[in-house]
Amino acid sequence: MLEVGGKTFQSRLFTGTGKFSSNSQMEEALLASGSELVTVALKRVDMENPEEDILNYLKHEHLQLLPNTSGVRDAKEAVFAAQLAREAMETDLLKLEIHPDPKYLLPDPIETLKATEELAKLGFKVFPYIHADPVLCKKLEEAGAVAVMPLGAPIGSNKGLKTMDFLEIIIEQSNVPVVVDAGLGAPSHAAHAMELGADAVLVNTAIAAAADPVAMAKAFKMAVEAGRMAYEAKLAPVQQHAVASSPLTSFLDQL
Amino acid sequence: MLEVGGKTFQSRLFTGTGKFSSNSQMEEALLASGSELVTVALKRVDMENPEEDILNYLKHEHLQLLPNTSGVRDAKEAVFAAQLAREAMETDLLKLEIHPDPKYLLPDPIETLKATEELAKLGFKVFPYIHADPVLCKKLEEAGAVAVMPLGAPIGSNKGLKTMDFLEIIIEQSNVPVVVDAGLGAPSHAAHAMELGADAVLVNTAIAAAADPVAMAKAFKMAVEAGRMAYEAKLAPVQQHAVASSPLTSFLDQL
Amino acid sequence: MLEVGGKTFQSRLFTGTGKFSSNSQMEEALLASGSELVTVALKRVDMENPEEDILNYLKHEHLQLLPNTSGVRDAKEAVFAAQLAREAMETDLLKLEIHPDPKYLLPDPIETLKATEELAKLGFKVFPYIHADPVLCKKLEEAGAVAVMPLGAPIGSNKGLKTMDFLEIIIEQSNVPVVVDAGLGAPSHAAHAMELGADAVLVNTAIAAAADPVAMAKAFKMAVEAGRMAYEAKLAPVQQHAVASSPLTSFLDQL
Amino acid sequence: MLEVGGKTFQSRLFTGTGKFSSNSQMEEALLASGSELVTVALKRVDMENPEEDILNYLKHEHLQLLPNTSGVRDAKEAVFAAQLAREAMETDLLKLEIHPDPKYLLPDPIETLKATEELAKLGFKVFPYIHADPVLCKKLEEAGAVAVMPLGAPIGSNKGLKTMDFLEIIIEQSNVPVVVDAGLGAPSHAAHAMELGADAVLVNTAIAAAADPVAMAKAFKMAVEAGRMAYEAKLAPVQQHAVASSPLTSFLDQL
Question: What is its quaternary makeup (chains A, B, C, D) (predicted)?
């Protein structure tokens, strides 16, 4: 069982809500994923047309909302957006995303740390989305983040664990849960992150942009469980030389 | 549902029986894996002490035996061993393994093709274990193999899909099921093979040498199912540039 | 010709001075490398025993010193060390290294940006050593850095370009020279960095810890030149399908 | 100095002659490469128009021709083509290429071994082009091949050393020179192959299809020399933990 931000989760697959072809498809995929923590961009909440609103599709008892600040460009905007989000979505949890660059959407380390400090003081449970930078992760932890969310590869790239060497260091050093976010394009990527010892993963594009998002959501569910189980069951070590699965003897000589 | 050698299988995880610390641990792990096809080295069958025999632990209705010729050094020995195996294990299915080299246990392409031709004529359903060589795979198919079993990495190395570029070609070209064998060291590796379109995988060392083989078997079970489901649901494409999960606008400007 | 910090360099191989078995071996290797920019830790300068001092071995007209702040833990210490270094080594050039973590020696993004701002105002030509974080690189450039020095892998690991996907983005976006620093363990790694479009590389451990540091220095020299030349000559694109080098016809039919 | 097939070579860069935009461009690039062994497809030799013939551009004292059998589909055709080539190009050296598949041009292990046996008996110095299959390489050596030419990736793909794990085993086990052929798309790939201990590399597409083939040829020349030199100077080992280039002490405390 994963504990983070004062909540407990059976599922270690966190999910996003962007890019689905419809709200009902999104709802169906999220239910299939077994996810209990779902991130929603504040800017996507339609406060004026509540009937069409995305939040209507997320009203399930097991679903905890994780508002995110996608679209803000600095700490000041982030703090403002966070406060709006807390009110709109009635939760202290916050995924902090500050990415000034519109091409790769990579996170800003300086503004993210600054906003984390301020938001923690304001009582938010901050999940910062950041580069896989081990030193930054420790600083965010010290600033009061309840988890860290290092990226695996640029958002939406589906490239997998391109930051693996650094994720291993982050996982080794962290005192708060490590959630690998962004870039996970296939269930095998998610399983790999879990095998390394990540506490959870966040997946959005790979599910929403699959030909069959509902089936893909289920595939990620199983892969995350498989990866976690393998982490707990401890993988056999990598060997340079082959090691036969069965004892090698020229047994026919004896016949 | 997978069809191969005239049999049908719900599970796409094939398993091996070597390296477990006891026969009862092996039995428990194989049951947890959900595997329906289990390979057994002829040389490990103890025809003189039937009570201690490994086969006693494999007597489950859903388990199909796949005898293997591990330990033979050429086609002639393989054909002889195959005939003994057919008698001892009462099946025409045969995993053909010819690896003269004791250090890396890599398969011999020439003797394997020769033995496949002969064994197919003798009515065997041959599953040859071979290098991930696309031309050789086509020749084996033409020689009557019911499946091909290219390696992912040297046996027991747990290195994963080191032959990926060639497995993709093999899968694209094959008219018989492709079973990735050897080198799969983690559930994520197995999921990856399935995502590429492999029909099944064979895992032994990674389960048997895990700290908890029974849990690891279950992890592989889920990973294989996840990978297959993802293959069928079609993965989203890899992108060079980031693609935001949520529409990017400087929404705060509008507040 | 590379221009950086108001200097011009024929060689795009920057070098370090740590870990050599003797000062004279270091001198010989640096001369063999053709390097024109050599980084020296201020803490290694022995101001009390000038005859034994490392600087005596670096007195060659073509060698420009690049003092570094290795050993400092924050911006304040870095600024102090920089001023000592400017005096001791009589140059405005400064490699800024702030790594509080003694295990992996990874750089601190926050303190590095802060120190860069201050040092640029004090007239230093700052070369900050940092994680391969594209957003941070842009901020350092805006703060007045004359170059950015993203890491390829943890210092001394010899793992190569583990940050490749992010180096490509940094190179694409940077208006100042990009020098790949740390982790380059083989000439092929250095060539690869140059093929991607890096302006230069910095190598230390891979030369100093080779069995033959002088020969390895020469190998890196050639590899860097090869990589730069290939970048300028533009690599042929990667192809999914094979493309024959010679026209494929069943020419024998015509004989 | 490399010895193979009774000849000695200063250069460990072997080259091909396909895909250049003109014969004179080819000649210029080959001269820039420093290569002393150049492969030519028999089918490209124009016996009826000797003035236009490719061989006219290869008449340099330091250039040894290596005829190849590209275009043949089996051992029988290969033996016939080899005999024509020996006559036309006046050399016993022969690059044996048998690739029945027109899409990926991957070599046929069975026919290649068969042809090698026959050609060795006929006095040819056979360089077989094959998959990176360690067992097959040993068989070819036993059949009389003077070198083995395992592929790095499919011909013309420029993907680099996709077969690295197997090349390492081949190099470890071989008693004849190992020449990595096919797939090397950048000087860094060639340097990497040499660092692993390959005796030589063969490059064609990456030079011929570069924007500037002459400069690219020179880049490969330097990279191959760099890689060989690094192999001989012995690379420093890969480390899991960072190792500082300079001794780490909080030296400022002492000031």
Answer: Homotetramer. Forms heterodimers with either ThiH or ThiS.
Which secondary structure element, helix H or strand E, spans residue A33, and what is its range? Answer: helix A23-33
Q: What is the pLDDT of residues C93-142, one digit of tens each?
A: 999 999 988 888 899 999 999 999 999 999 999 999 999 999 999 999 99
In angstroms, rounded to a whole number, what is the distance separating the alpha carbons of residues A150 and A182? 8
Catalytic residue among B7, B43, B95, B125: B95
Residue D221's SS3 state is: helix
pLDDT, tens digit only, all 255 positions of chain B: 899 999 999 999 999 999 999 999 999 999 999 999 999 998 777 666 666 688 889 989 999 999 999 989 999 999 999 999 999 889 999 999 999 888 888 999 999 999 999 999 999 999 999 999 999 999 999 999 999 999 998 887 888 999 999 999 999 999 999 999 988 999 999 999 999 999 999 999 999 999 999 999 999 999 999 999 999 999 988 887 665 555 545 555 555
Write out the E strands in B25-120. Answer: 37-41, 64-68, 93-96
Beta bridge partners of B178: B148
Architecture of domain B2-254: Alpha-Beta Barrel (3.20)
Q: How does strand A179-181 pair with strand A200-203? A: parallel
- Comparing CA positions, the residue from D27, D152, D151, D19 lying closest to residue D95 is D151
Q: Is B204 annotated as a binding residue?
A: yes
Q: Catalytic residues of A, which ones?
A: 95
Complete DSSP assignment for C132-144: S-HHHHHHHHHTT
Chain C residues interacting with chain A (CB cutoff of 8 angstroms): 99-101, 104, 106-110, 113, 131, 133-136, 138-139, 153-154, 159, 162-166, 169
D15: nearest CA in chain C? C245
- Residue D206 vs residues B197, C80, D30, D186: alpha-carbon distances, Å: 30, 50, 13, 6
Instruction: Choose the catalytic residue: D95, D139, D218, D221.
Output: D95
Instruction: For chain A, give every domain's residue range.
Output: 2-254
CA angle A120, A122, A126 (to 5 degrees): 35
- The answer to whether the CB atoms of C185 and D238 lie below 8 A apart is yes
- Are residues C135 and A99, on separate chains, in Cβ contact within 8 Å? yes
DSSP structural state of residue C90:
T
Rounded Cα gap, residues D130 and B30, in angstroms:
38
